[in-house]
Amino acid sequence: MTTKLYRNARIYTPVMGGSSARRGTEQGEITVWLSGSILVSGGRIKSVGEEASVSKNLSPADVDMEIDLGGAAVVPGFVDPHTHACFAALREGEFSMRLAGRSYLDILKAGGGILSSVRKVRGTSEDELYAFSKKVLSSTLSYGTTTIEIKSGYGLDTEAELKMLRAIARVGRETPQSVVPTFMGAHAVPEEYKTKPDDYAALMCTEMLPAIARSGLAKFCDIFCEDGVFDVAQSRRILSRAKELGFRLKIHADEVNDLGGAALAGELGAVSAEHLLAASDAGIDAMANAGVVADLLPATAYSLKKPFARARKMIERGVPVALATDLNPGSCFCQSMPFVISLAIMGMNMTPEEALTGATLNAAWSIGMEKEVGSLEAGKLADFVVLDGETPAVLAYASGVRPILSVWKRGERVA
User: Fold this and answer.
1) Burial level of 202, CB count in 10 A (0-12/13-18/19+)?
2) Residue 222: pLDDT above 80?
3) Rounded CA gap, 97 and 351, in Å?
4) At what angle do helices 232-244 and 261-268 cross, to 10 degrees?
5) Per the confidence metrics, is the pTM higher than 0.85?
6) Which of 107, 155, 223, 322 has CB atoms 3.0–4.6 Å from 363's, for a disulfide?
């Protein structure tokens, strides 16, 4: 088992500090070691802190390799907790349609959007899905994402959803990144059920969810609770069934309209509610009371030209805030967590410290990976990013570029 000592680093990391994600003033609390070191053995952190402390009882024989990080800022590997990174084709044309004034929901109602991706995925082989997704993930890795969630939801029938989840599982086995799979068969109502959405909700409960549960290919179940997609009653029915089958819950909530998805997330004890551009004060309070993590996606608001989610209100009300790219082929083809962090700081008025926690530890909590990743602490995977700067503020200061010198997964350089 190889032991490595990473030294001469300015280390910035949130720390666990309890049994839940960081909320309120805790979200901005970052531990800093300006002359820091990380001792890694077998891909996990043995010790981290000031160099003098980490090295105090080490002899030359204890360390197989010493790596000088050049005095740069070092942060935990980014955790992207909301993506749709398994798909078969881009939808660049829809971007031009939106710029010309067509709304996201109008494009979906006309058979575009998600339904366009469904037609492509249904006609694509599992091998092709895997190859496309692996290429996309390689790009996210270069931007510092060492752990990533991927949703299904472009199949919308049992066979195609299982095909997507098998491709996602293969990517997880054959990429350096940790991959967390989410089943999202309730991403939209498929065209064949356009006039009978309740029948599709019934199919989800009686056939699709049990089949996915038997496969063991997904840890979470997500749903798009929105006007023209699934209403609150349908969402409650599907998610309640998913909970019975052992899935942990996520909800695409209140992205376009305040439908009450955030409140439903609190009611059902969802791990996270996601998007939340239109979430009401009551919905935010319901999330705070239930400890639901808010996965905010500022790059999507940017792409759709919509006001950002109210991150400051959420933090003030005690909602743990996480950040994600929403990487998908339509509304937001964003692969860069540094860009998301920059938007969170500049567009949602989060501090650099709050944004760092949102992109690492709180994001890990929202996908059930908090014991493995999200902070630089003994026992966790040695996943970290060496920034091209002295503090995490460089992620917003150096806008429009890749402010990263190197990316490390399990103590190995991967980008």
Assistant:
1) middle
2) yes
3) 34
4) 20
5) yes
6) 322
The answer on pLDDT for 104 being more than 80 is: no
Among candidate residues 156, 244, 154, 248, the one with its CA nearest the CA of residue 203:
156
How confident is residue 103, by pLDDT bands cut at 50, 70 and 90?
confident
The answer to whether 81 touches 358, Cβ cutoff 8 Å, is no
What is the DSSP annotation of 103-115? -HHHHHHTT-THH
pLDDT of residue 99: 82
Can you tell me the distance from the alpha carbon of 40 to that of 50, in angstroms, rounded to the nearest whole number?
A: 15
Task: Look at the block and give the residue holding tokens 């995977």.
Answer: 381
Q: Give the pLDDT score at 107.
A: 78
Q: Which residues fall within 8 angstroms of residue 309, CB to CB, at 6 or more apart?
A: 275, 276, 277, 279, 294, 296, 297, 298, 301, 348
CB atoms within 10 A of CB 21: 29
Question: Tens digits of per-residue pLDDT, 289-299?
Answer: 999 999 999 99
Q: How close are the terminal C-alpha atoms of the chain, in Å?
A: 22
Nearest Cα residue to 251 out of 264, 233, 240, 237 = 264
- Cβ–Cβ under 8 Å, residues 401 and 409: no
Read off the pLDDT band of 309 (50, 70, 90): very high
Q: How far apart are alpha carbons 381 and 229 in whole angstroms? A: 39
Q: In whole angstroms, what is the distance from residue 162 CA to residue 181 CA? A: 11
The H or E element spanning position 33 is strand 31-41
CA–CA dist 93, 253 (Å, integer) = 26
Average pLDDT over residues 128-141: 97
> Within a 10 A sphere around the Cβ of 6, how many other Cβ atoms?
26
**Residues contacting residue 272 through CB under 8 Å, at least 6 positions apart:** 81, 82, 250, 251, 265, 292, 293, 294, 295, 322, 366, 367
Q: What is the C-alpha separation between 350 and 341, in angstroms, rounded?
A: 9
Q: For residue range 23-67, what is the model confidence (pLDDT) as tens digits?
A: 999 999 999 999 999 999 999 999 999 999 999 989 888 999 999
Phi/psi of residue 24, nearest 5 degrees: 60, -135
CA atoms 398, 400, 406, 410: torsion sign: positive
DSSP reduced 3-state for 65: strand
- Whether 148 and 137 have beta carbons less than 8 Å apart is answered as yes
34 Cβ neighbours under 8 A, 6+ residues apart? 10
- DSSP state at residue 61: G
